[in-house]
Amino acid sequence: MPDEPDVKLIDVARKAGCSPATVSRVLNHNAKVNTATREKVLQAAMDLAYVPNGSARSLRSTKSRLAGAVIPTLDHAIYATMVNSLQARLTENGVSLIINTSSYDIDREYEQVRLLVERGVESVVLVGAAHRRETIALLEQRNIAYVFTYTAKPTDIGAAVGFDNEKAGRLAARHLIDLGHTRIAMLGGITINNDRAVSRRDGFVAELRDNNLAPLGILETPYQADGGHAGMKRLMLADTPPTAVICASDIAAAGALKYCRQNDIAVPGTVSVLGFDNLDIGELTTPELTTIDVPAGEMGRIAADYLLAPAAQRQHMRIRELPLRLVVRGSTAALLR
Amino acid sequence: MPDEPDVKLIDVARKAGCSPATVSRVLNHNAKVNTATREKVLQAAMDLAYVPNGSARSLRSTKSRLAGAVIPTLDHAIYATMVNSLQARLTENGVSLIINTSSYDIDREYEQVRLLVERGVESVVLVGAAHRRETIALLEQRNIAYVFTYTAKPTDIGAAVGFDNEKAGRLAARHLIDLGHTRIAMLGGITINNDRAVSRRDGFVAELRDNNLAPLGILETPYQADGGHAGMKRLMLADTPPTAVICASDIAAAGALKYCRQNDIAVPGTVSVLGFDNLDIGELTTPELTTIDVPAGEMGRIAADYLLAPAAQRQHMRIRELPLRLVVRGSTAALLR
DNA sequence: CTGTTAGCGCATTCAG
DNA sequence: CTGAATGCGCTAACAG
């Protein structure tokens, strides 16, 4: 099946016996076109298996129906889930999504955004509130809509949909304090270039301080089971081991749990473990994980709605703080005396 | 910062004191250009923060540097991981990736592919070997490179990178047979529109038959923990419960494990449980999961390499069957008599 | 309601 | 090595 010369709009016009403009009208903004000719055009397009040329279309109309997302990685469910719903919502509205990953590196993020701009995206989804000046400047200058996710902290100009990471850190600490713990450690995320991890840590520390407590230790660990495992080991072998540990993610928490199981450390008897994200895995470990729910899917959906909204309406949608929810399961318990 | 009128190639030319053609040459195929003027052009482009217009570029050159992927969902690590490495490899080579999801529906898949064609993608990644005729015809007709993943079964014309799903089914069965099991059930994936689940089931049944065994039951379950939980329940409450169960994925297997734990059914003492995919979660359950490794990341990388290769070379890369690996951990054991 | 005209921004001929 | 000219396929004005 050799490639027949691509059929274009003008071929459809010829076959339908009308002008290219009319074909364009039928295929697009549905401006008033006689029903009879409309049918003929549609028929002709069908017969010829016509597929419009998006490049030509964008070039002429300066509308690309393209959006971009730059996320740290797709290899973590919390981002994959967000992108999944973002993509679904955008596609429902005829917008295609280009995805790029930054590996948590804001310089790479900038490069990727540049690429997206080059591709002609009309909107961009970013993660977090910390970005290079150039990134934002570029977006502003090209008049591209953008929104930050996983944060509720917009810049002067940017919008945000997500949650307050500091509150998240406080919420976690609060839960453990309420259970009577005083020796609380954190197995936090890597804070370099990750403003969300920073805020959560700060919130955690602040909440302890407000209760005249100090963290027993703050370790940073990648969002992986191994990291949680190794971190828990360090924590539990210390002179003064914690009675409660806040983990950067459910994955890390599951790794921490594994360390405890392997070493006959009772959870939550000896040490309480708190996860973060509310991933599926939290219900599959033994004990099941107490965690903080991150509404990833909803974030994707809302981000899409924001970007799809007419520019005028966007003003009123600039901050969308989603509620944080503590999910209490079996891995945390009151401190035994 | 109001939107200054977008700077275009001709502006760069003016600023650099040369013709647009020269600027184009500098920015692209690096055809011989005097080093001095090249520098001036680069400088001017920098100063003006010039970003080329991709649409115009593609329209003129008929090269879009765009690829597309249509996968069932991003909400399952096995696909997200593949896409993650696919994207990384493509980006390294200046190709952007548009992602669409089909929800395991080949009619939707066709729609998405059409959209991708419209966007001008030069190559497409699909999952599995079962697709609508129209999908393949469209790709062939437009001369778009495409590759199937998670399968080693190419069509007459399409390429494939993945593994033999029937072998996977057989491998799973083999492991349990070797352990002395005869009452073996399957908690398989939904087979509608999923040729891979079909093949794995067929391989499973075939291997049993080759050993004069018949499956004790085959249930279909979505790739979720709940499904595994519910399926395991049905299986274990049957008149003749199995002594070994093959699950569609590690997620389902983890759900099955949970059911057993809740009901004091010993794993692997009373029943062995075999997972599939080798996700992180497999090392975090109790017991840890015996599973079959699916090289998702490698698939993405290889698929990218295939699509990036010059058309001539692709002929020699059409099938790439990756090895399947049984990962034995604690959830399977020899049958006790 | 429909056709005609004129580019969108760029890469590619073809001459110099 | 460089410039001038010519559309890529389509849609937005403007007439009719």
Automatic annotation (TrEMBL), chains A, B:
Keywords: DNA-binding, Transcription, Transcription regulation. It comes from the Bacteria. The keyword Transcription applies. This is GntR family transcriptional regulator. Pfam families: LacI, Peripla_BP_3. Residues 7-61 form the HTH lacI-type domain. PROSITE patterns: HTH_LACI_2 (PS50932). The keyword Translocase does not apply. One of its GO terms (molecular function) is DNA-binding transcription factor activity.
